Amino acid sequence: MKPLIIKEIVHATGGEYTGKNHEKQIKGVSTDSRTIIAESLFVPIIGPNFDGHDFIGNAIKKGAAAALCNKSKKEKLEGLLFDDIIFVENTSTALLELASYYRSLFSIPFVAVTGSVGKTTTKEMIAEILMTRYDVLKSRGNFNNEIGLPLTIFCLEQKHEAGVVELGMSALGEISRMANVVKPHIAVITNIGVTHIEHLGSKENIARAKLEILEPLKKDDIAILNGDCAELWNARKNIVPKTVFFGEKRGDVLIDEIKNLGPNELEFTISGKYGEAKFKLPLSGKHNAINAVAAVAVGFEMGFTKEEIQQGLSNLKLPGMRQEFKKSKFGSDIIDDAYNANPDSMKAALDLIKELAPYKMKAVILGDMLELGPLAKKAHFEVGTYAALCSDICVFIGSYADALKEGAIASGFNPARIYTFPTVQESVQEIEKLVKDCDIILVKASRGMKFEQITQKLVGGL
């Protein structure tokens, strides 16, 4: 991090500083008193189950140079002999304000990515493409919310030449606040699905929330959008920046042909705005090819050559539990795709196992898809019907296991080949004997289900 001084932080946050050392340097920003390093600013966040203000003293003991504090939380400082406190109305808001100021110190271009499905994969693809020419800052792991995004921005250094960040959300307004911190030159929306419908109420509201990423874009900036999503296509007349639509059925860049070449390799062809071109990707699945088209569009719009774009795609390595191929202790192939799940990504993963092993014995181990609200039962039923078309053995786990089972049976699947468990813990004891005769096994659920326990059992780690 480029050092800041307290005077800058006070100005950026509109805070009130009680100390006298306005020139004191700050060399880092942290929201975690357990990992804070010396000369950092501690930002206490109030969460649903904790209050970071309770740990200001711990942060100071570990060498924090200064701390923010909500004006309404001054009583938390009683008995603390420390002057370098900056009082603000809301520490979470102040964190975003400070990140916005820090971002303004760098003139490099940023690409911001959002979408209901595939945003992490697309972010990683874009970053790899840009890294063939630039020193790139990218958001780590799931640092895609109003805490993680600012912490990513504070990692900017003079060496960086471009940035790629992922923006997630669970409510209206969140992406707007984050996008106005990042001020991207290019914004990408991978698609619009039903994830977070529990909080937003409708697919139209989800689209509104995702489209907030375009708010800071000007006429010379670029929006790269999935043309096959009706919600995005229908919004095109009201979009200010230059638009590039991609998709299978409509758009400026069309994906014409997709060939799965093996468990970790596919080839796809594009046509349209950038001419005809063929690319290879070290992943499988049609959904990944479509995500790659968005990344390819970013590359071309930023002036990269086809060869540089291909090199970036070839360098791709996804974080764990995202379509990760593993070997079970009994010899079967496992597709560990349990980082997250929603109806669209479930169907894409089921398509993948069907494509990769059309004549082999297939098992699917599926769990709950979270945050679907009143659509949950219907969505799980529909995934169950789809799973019946793609597998030989079905194992359903969680609160919606029965809905998945009902869907599979409605599709004509043999009930004797369906196994249900209310919890992961109960399934772990039985799972191996249920699927050990299968050639390939898909493991997928929302992250909150902790399906890594199942994969570890099958691989041999438990």
UniProtKB/TrEMBL annotation:
<dbReference type="InterPro" id="IPR005863">
    <property type="entry name" value="UDP-N-AcMur_synth"/>
</dbReference>
<comment type="function">
    <text>Involved in cell wall formation. Catalyzes the final step in the synthesis of UDP-N-acetylmuramoyl-pentapeptide, the precursor of murein.</text>
</comment>
<dbReference type="InterPro" id="IPR051046">
    <property type="entry name" value="MurCDEF_CellWall_CoF430Synth"/>
</dbReference>
<keyword id="KW-0436">Ligase</keyword>
<dbReference type="Pfam" id="PF08245">
    <property type="entry name" value="Mur_ligase_M"/>
</dbReference>
<dbReference type="Pfam" id="PF02875">
    <property type="entry name" value="Mur_ligase_C"/>
</dbReference>
<feature type="domain" description="Mur ligase C-terminal">
    <location>
        <begin position="322"/>
        <end position="447"/>
    </location>
</feature>
<dbReference type="GO" id="GO:0009252">
    <property type="term" value="P:peptidoglycan biosynthetic process"/>
</dbReference>
<dbReference type="GO" id="GO:0051301">
    <property type="term" value="P:cell division"/>
</dbReference>
<comment type="similarity">
    <text>Belongs to the MurCDEF family. MurF subfamily.</text>
</comment>
<dbReference type="GO" id="GO:0071555">
    <property type="term" value="P:cell wall organization"/>
</dbReference>
<dbReference type="GO" id="GO:0005524">
    <property type="term" value="F:ATP binding"/>
</dbReference>
<keyword id="KW-0131">Cell cycle</keyword>
<dbReference type="InterPro" id="IPR013221">
    <property type="entry name" value="Mur_ligase_cen"/>
</dbReference>
<keyword id="KW-0132">Cell division</keyword>
<feature type="binding site">
    <location>
        <begin position="115"/>
        <end position="121"/>
    </location>
    <ligand>
        <name>ATP</name>
    </ligand>
</feature>
<protein>
    <recommendedName>
        <fullName>UDP-N-acetylmuramoyl-tripeptide--D-alanyl-D-alanine ligase</fullName>
        <ecNumber>6.3.2.10</ecNumber>
    </recommendedName>
</protein>
<dbReference type="InterPro" id="IPR000713">
    <property type="entry name" value="Mur_ligase_N"/>
</dbReference>
<feature type="domain" description="Mur ligase central">
    <location>
        <begin position="113"/>
        <end position="298"/>
    </location>
</feature>
<keyword id="KW-0133">Cell shape</keyword>
<dbReference type="InterPro" id="IPR004101">
    <property type="entry name" value="Mur_ligase_C"/>
</dbReference>
<dbReference type="InterPro" id="IPR035911">
    <property type="entry name" value="MurE/MurF_N"/>
</dbReference>
<keyword id="KW-0963">Cytoplasm</keyword>
<dbReference type="GO" id="GO:0047480">
    <property type="term" value="F:UDP-N-acetylmuramoyl-tripeptide-D-alanyl-D-alanine ligase activity"/>
</dbReference>
<feature type="domain" description="Mur ligase N-terminal catalytic">
    <location>
        <begin position="26"/>
        <end position="76"/>
    </location>
</feature>
<dbReference type="Pfam" id="PF01225">
    <property type="entry name" value="Mur_ligase"/>
</dbReference>
<keyword id="KW-0547">Nucleotide-binding</keyword>
<dbReference type="GO" id="GO:0008360">
    <property type="term" value="P:regulation of cell shape"/>
</dbReference>
<keyword id="KW-0573">Peptidoglycan synthesis</keyword>
<keyword id="KW-0961">Cell wall biogenesis/degradation</keyword>
<comment type="pathway">
    <text>Cell wall biogenesis; peptidoglycan biosynthesis.</text>
</comment>
<dbReference type="InterPro" id="IPR036615">
    <property type="entry name" value="Mur_ligase_C_dom_sf"/>
</dbReference>
<dbReference type="InterPro" id="IPR036565">
    <property type="entry name" value="Mur-like_cat_sf"/>
</dbReference>
<dbReference type="GO" id="GO:0005737">
    <property type="term" value="C:cytoplasm"/>
</dbReference>
<dbReference type="GO" id="GO:0008766">
    <property type="term" value="F:UDP-N-acetylmuramoylalanyl-D-glutamyl-2,6-diaminopimelate-D-alanyl-D-alanine ligase activity"/>
</dbReference>
<keyword id="KW-0067">ATP-binding</keyword>
